[in-house]
Design a protein that fits this description.
Keywords: Kinase, Membrane, Transferase, Transmembrane, Transmembrane helix. It comes from Algoriphagus aquatilis. Pfam families: His_kinase. Its EC number is 2.7.13.3. The chain has a five-stranded mixed β-sheet with strand order 2-4-5-7-6, covered by helices on one side. The chain has a two-stranded antiparallel sheet with strand order 1-3. The two termini are 40 Å apart. The mean pLDDT is 78. 61% of the residues lie in helices and 13% in strands. By secondary structure, the protein is of the alpha+beta class. It has two domains: 154 residues, no CATH class; 195 residues, Histidine kinase-like ATPase, C-terminal domain (Heat Shock Protein 90, 2-Layer Sandwich), CATH 3.30.565.10.
Length: 360
């Protein structure tokens, strides 16, 4: 048995209040204003009002729950119009037969026109028009309600599909980033084993600590910015082990507040590009890595020289998947909340990246 959620309870309450308002305004207050104090309306009038209200409620929910979903929403527009017209005829005939059965017309004539003879074949046209207008209002409102509910359901399904698609895509993107990170870092440690075994061992220890972050934090949608900054610092310490005195590191990273959260490993591809393209064993170079934190906004900047890499190395065969994936992750995770700019300064032969993220 389905449970009643607060949203469902609210919908039921709105329906009940709507019908109460209709009954009070159209079918009770208006008749009571007729010659108040001069005539007493017969009991047949109130029986007809109850019958009319019941009929309108039946029409409302039959149309919204059966006719609209099974005919109109199936694209059978002409059939829907025919059904509504047939319903109007049936509605009118039921009102006529009820009035004849309950002697409604005769009793109302005796109250309002006691000095005139009663003609059972003569009907009050304004009353019939008013009742048909009530039918059309009930049909119009129920059709609108049904279409709005259908739109809301479709929108909820679309949002759920979008959420599932985004979750799947993000998982795929993160799965691509992890091997990319492993590949570059292990290449660095492999190069160190030929130069300094003790440094290579120390690098492996740092790498193991970083891998804990990758394995545990990267599986989450968000992590503390302080943990992300610690990961960045460990990564840069690992990269320093392979740098010569010709490379100058300019690192400026603010201490983040404890309550700021961010998607994990967003900055890593930019750092990788700095160390992949911005160092040379023969020429002097400088790498700038800067992170400013103002309130809930993070300003991240990198700048590095561009040196050609060995075309035979595995790095030369990569297609920049880390940067492409990061751009896609930013567009999915922080739509309208981030700004990413990057390019090459031809005058200085430097590549720069500016990233701003609003974490609010």
């Amino acid at each position: 048995m389905p449970s009643l959620t607060p949203k469902k309870n609210l919908s039921i309450l709105v329906h009940i209040l709507g019908w109460i308002m209709l009954c009070v305004v159209l079918l009770i207050l208006s008749p009571l204003s007729w010659r108040m104090g001069e005539v007493a309306l017969p009991v047949q009038f109130w029986w007809k009002q109850i019958f009319l209200i019941s009929l309108l409620i039946t029409i409302f929910y039959t149309n919204s729950g059966v006719i609209v979903p099974r005919i109109l929403l199936k694209g059978k527009n002409y059939l829907y119009i025919l059904v509504i017209l047939a319903g109007a005829v049936l509605f009118y005939l039921m009102i006529v037969y009820f009035e004849q059965f309950s002697l409604y017309s005769e009793k109302m004539h005796q109250v309002f026109n006691p000095d005139r003879p009663f003609n059972p074949n003569k009907r009050w046209v304004p009353g019939d028009v008013f009742q048909l207008l009530l039918y059309l209002i009930s049909i119009g409102l129920s059709t609108s309600v049904s279409l709005v509910e259908k739109w809301q359901k479709d929108e909820a399904i679309r949002r759920e599909l979008d959420r599932q698609r985004i979750d799947t895509e993000l998982s795929y993107l993160k799965a691509q980033i992890n091997p990319h990170f492993f590949f570059n870092t292990l290449n660095n440690i492999y190069a160190l084993t030929n130069l300094d075994v003790s440094k290579a061992q120390e690098a492996l220890l740092k790498l193991s600590r970083m891998m804990r972050y990758v394995l545990y934090e990267n599986q989450k949608n968000e992590t503390l910015l302080s943990k992300e900054v610690k990961f960045i610092e460990d990564y840069m310490e690992l990269m320093k082990m392979r740098l010569s005195h010709k490379v100058k590191l300019n690192i400026q990273i603010d201490e983040p507040k404890d309550d700021l959260v961010i998607a994990p490993m967003l900055f890593l591809p930019f750092l990788e590009n700095c160390f992949k393209h911005g160092i040379s064993s023969q020429q002097e170079s400088e790498i700038l890595i800067k992170m400013e934190i103002m309130g809930e906004t993070v300003f991240f900047e990198t700048k590095n020289h561009i040196f050609p890499i060995n075309p035979d190395s595995p790095e030369a065969k990569e297609n920049g998947i880390g940067l492409v994936n990061t751009k896609r992750r930013l567009s999915l995770l922080y739509p309208e909340k981030h700004r990413l700019k990057f390019g090459k300064d031809e005058s200085t032969n430097q590549y720069w990246v500016n990233l701003t993220i609003n974490l609010a």
